[in-house]
């Protein structure tokens, strides 16, 4: 089993900009929630299918497989809930840790999330100065939640 | 896109027995229904992940990928709805067509289904003498339905 252990933060400022090139991500969900979530993702010209288990604390089972990008495009078009998640992902090294910053587009425009993937839930790391409030425990910031309740609609319900 | 076009029948008698060796199948569903169904299947020592679209008449979009059998075992154990489908599949040639007969076990014990996969919905084929009533249009006989409403409970609700 793959295991995903990650912490999520909002951004405190724009000082991270220019530190890395961004890559376009497009992803959607065939299903999300209990017992499992099935995600289709296209990064540039590569397609991936990912199965994730329920989140327990910061830890989540994860199984990822590369699939033909043509299949990924068809499945995103025909079998995933709307809206799809479109974002630019910036990957950068800070003090020996890999950080990913997602800049969301379309229905989630304006939302920025920084993530760090850890080896274990108690791992120490240096907090970059552009990282703000932690949102690891807030389910609204999950990508699968942003399909159901996009950022552009927050505070309007 | 792969496309699945199949017709399903009950069995009229046991005359097909002895025509083919059976292989054990174990499968489960991470999700089923609209817009897509995600199935995990183990055949002998091989694992597969299959995404199917909604059924339109006899036709259904299908995307299948081989995955490590260890992953398939974990996903079946932790992320699939109960009960799992366990069956023996017998594959045989009759008059130039490939037929598959599924002999269900456990919660679906007693159920036998014969399937023929077609190139197009109007394809002609010779009906074997051991094939009985067609059930292509009856959603109760779908494997994903047999998880929710197993054969052993039919007529008891």
TrEMBL record, chains A, B:
Lineage: superkingdom: Bacteria
Pfam families: CYTH
Ranges of residues in domain CYTH: 2-148
Active site (UniProt): 29 (proton acceptor)
The protein, known as: CYTH domain-containing protein
Organism: Desulfoprunum benzoelyticum
């Amino acid at each position: 089993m793959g295991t995903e252990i990650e912490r999520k933060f909002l951004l405190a400022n724009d000082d991270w900009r220019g530190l890395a090139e961004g890559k376009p991500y497009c992803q959607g969900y065939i299903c999300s929630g209990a017992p499992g979530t099935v995600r289709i993702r296209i990064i540039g010209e590569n397609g991936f299918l990912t199965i994730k288990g329920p989140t327990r604390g910061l830890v989540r089972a994860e199984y990822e497989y590369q699939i033909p990008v043509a299949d990924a495009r068809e499945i995103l078009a025909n079998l995933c809930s709307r809206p799809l998640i479109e974002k630019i992902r910036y990957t950068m090294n800070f003090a020996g840790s890999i950080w990913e910053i997602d800049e969301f587009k379309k229905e989630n425009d304006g939302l920025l999330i920084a993530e760090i993937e850890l080896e274990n839930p108690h791992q120490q790391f240096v907090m970059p100065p552009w990282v703000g409030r932690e949102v690891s425990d807030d389910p609204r910031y999950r990508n699968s939640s942003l399909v159901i309740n996009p950022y552009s609609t927050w505070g309007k319900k």
